[in-house]
Amino acid sequence: MVSTLEHPAPETATTVNEPLLTVEKHIIAHQTTIESWFRSEWRKTPAPFYASVDLRNSGYKIAPVDTNLFPAGFNNLNPDFEAICIQSLQLAVERMGRKIDRILLIPENHTRNLFYLENIGVIQSLITKAGFEVMLGSLIPELTEPLTISLTSGSTITLHPVIRNGNTLSINGFIPDMILLNNDLSGGRPPVLESLQQPIVPDLSLGWSTRLKSVHFRHYKEVAQEFSEQIGIDSWFIDPLFRNCGEIDFMKKESNQCLENNVNTLLVAIQKKYEEYGIHQKPYVVVKADAGTYGMGVMIAHSGVELLDLNRKERTRMSTTKEGQKVTKVIIQEGVYTNETWGADKTVAESVVYMIDKNVVGGFYRVHPNKGNNDNLNSPGMQFEPQSFEDCCVSPDKDQSPDTKLNRRYTYGVIARLANLAAAREFVTPHS
Amino acid sequence: MVSTLEHPAPETATTVNEPLLTVEKHIIAHQTTIESWFRSEWRKTPAPFYASVDLRNSGYKIAPVDTNLFPAGFNNLNPDFEAICIQSLQLAVERMGRKIDRILLIPENHTRNLFYLENIGVIQSLITKAGFEVMLGSLIPELTEPLTISLTSGSTITLHPVIRNGNTLSINGFIPDMILLNNDLSGGRPPVLESLQQPIVPDLSLGWSTRLKSVHFRHYKEVAQEFSEQIGIDSWFIDPLFRNCGEIDFMKKESNQCLENNVNTLLVAIQKKYEEYGIHQKPYVVVKADAGTYGMGVMIAHSGVELLDLNRKERTRMSTTKEGQKVTKVIIQEGVYTNETWGADKTVAESVVYMIDKNVVGGFYRVHPNKGNNDNLNSPGMQFEPQSFEDCCVSPDKDQSPDTKLNRRYTYGVIARLANLAAAREFVTPHS
Description:
The structure is a homodimer of 432-residue chains. Chain A has 432 residues and is an alpha+beta fold. The first copy, chain A, has 2 domains: 5-72 and 214-427, no CATH class; 78-206, 3-Layer(aba) Sandwich (Rossmann fold). In chain A, 29% of the residues lie in helices and 22% in strands. Chain A has 9 helices and 19 strands. Chain A has helices spanning 22-29, 31-44, 82-94, 114-129, 213-231, 257-276, 305-308, 312-319, 405-428, and strands at 5-6, 50-57, 62-68, 102-107, 133-138, 147-150, 156-161, 163-165, 168-170, 178-182, 200-201, 242-244, 285-289, 298-301, 330-334, 341-342, 347-356, 359-367, 385-388. In chain A, strands 1, 2, 3, 16, 17, 18 and 19 form a 7-stranded antiparallel β-sheet that branches. A 6-stranded mixed β-sheet of chain A has the order 6-7-5-4-10-11. In chain A, helix 1 (22-29) packs across helix 9 (405-428). The longest helix of chain A is centred in the C-terminal third of the chain and has 24 residues, at 405-428. Chain A is globular and about 65 Å long. The first copy, chain A, starts with a strand and ends with a helix. Chain A binds chain B through residues 31-32, 34-36, 38-40, 43, 80-81, 83-84, 86-88, 91, 94, 99-101, 128-133, 359, 392, 394-395, and chain B through 31-32, 34-36, 38-40, 43, 80-81, 83-84, 86-88, 91, 94, 99-101, 128-133, 359, 392, 394-395.
């Protein structure tokens, strides 16, 4: 049984009256408008196959901080909502608009991360239960024969080397009708996947070797503005401010002048918003690699000068991301305090919402005992304890407070879907 | 907490080895083939908006006996699977292919059946939770102002008189984008609904004033044959044999000669099948109105002569169906023994499976303490105790016996979807 999650007001709650719960109140009150708006947006821009969105909730602000189009962590979802996942998977495949019976799932190459492989086991099982044949194809160059791995849950998965014949990808005797990536292509677009006759989802252009967070958040800003007009709120309540520089090199001190300036400009802008809404918190920013994931190359700063004062170790850490890719672009994003806590000892919690096609299918809290409310809870080696949502965020209850669990889940689902819509627009206009 | 349902072998189990569980075994083993086949069929013929299917399971045979395109009883489904219903409703509305924000739900006219009105309350709530505005429009001629009715569950529903302006239907100030019928039009096609600019689902032609069970079961026979070829079974295991007469008049004795002959022919055909599979049961048939529902005008017979020997009261009962419609056509269908029982006292149970669009969204058992295993469990005034399915029938587990609850539910979902597909074909080729 999942323990209860508490959602205290931020420390400054007694002096902050207006913005607190503004987002939730407006969202709960406008459900029909919101769902109608989403319906018309999804007709214009089809949703990604699947996605997960990291949210931070400071009480006065709820915002997405990362949108992952190759979501791991399906093993952290509540198994009670498996049927929702299965039904959504059927819908997502149906949208491919062609006969699909066999699916090749391509996971990440790291075979020692058992948490990640558990996720692959769950996705494979969901696809099977949805009525498709599914096999796992690996891009590991050294893999020459099937590799069966035992999972902690007791089941096994088998990775197969992929074979390319002309423009057809297969694994021994199994010719898939589509290829589903759960590999974010941080290392670049693999030649073996280029120009295949089989459709690949998500599209290769959405891998982290080409996708930029700043492009995503530019789309998100537009989405947030259009949405906020519908329900009559300042879009800042759901949209983290951000700035970015051109090419930078963390190893060269002079390169960081642009960063310092942008950090300072952003902090001033955040301070102005805090004053507008009477929020007595210290503004901070998060500097992270513009391309990349897994919380590497991430730092927080409360002033621009901190960027100039980095020591060699910190510079090195910021310079490289997953699979050793060099960081040459960063996004500087408004830090959103996480004022949600879990359990009696008030541990900081960050929520992650999962979607398949346009449907919210579940989520969980990352709970990290040793982190503060401005820390990044998705950092390397982080031992978070996932706490799955007990319900599947679909419908608010206007008779309940906007802050009840049910209504907060609906709000999370709305914000996550806004980020999902931004991701959908990225694909339609990739180079905005 | 729902009590356990037992599924004993039929009395003759010890001598019947082969056909017992044949259907389940083949269905569980062929899940991927089945789902692939359904996917391709739904691409050709879109599923009805919603439907419920009554199933009877004799152990050696599982067959649909009624397919309702205006399903009542949503209040009997397991509320744990509300999210599945909501998601499926969103999909069903999306398939309309136009902007739908406001839905007018038209219920049956009987305002004193609180069980039925509870169903309407649940459908209205599901539609609201799915993010649409929904109001109830009534076809009751005497209704001139809104009528609010308190439900036993504690909530209320309000029926509004419908207003027709040109070819637009509305209720005071509420112009719906679509009209959803939960009224089976037994009394005929209401002129107020003809030639509206708003789409009506299900189509008026699918009301019981025009729809014939014999047409449905003719389509079902084809569907069952195509399906059975896919998984290698005799389609008789899932398809009740049937015959029908032309015009008949129960009040005139001579009119029943055709009935008697057909009953006898059908009984011989059933006996032959029973012998082929070593089933030691007594064949029987069910005679029911070809157009109509609610279990009126239904009788069972073990010999053709019983049709000639009806007394006046029985003739009168068979002559009229819901809303006083005269029965002029009947379908004579193979009786399928219900060898499923509920609880310690082995009460006969009949399952009803609900679908929205092509998705199974739940079901329940009709449990009637005073009925036998060849009785019709949906008869007038029947006080059945609904026992909702504890799970939502989506995916089998090949590692479990075909007779476990999970796998049986999957089988039920498959058979119900076959009936749903037959209904879909009725609409595409209504006069086959």
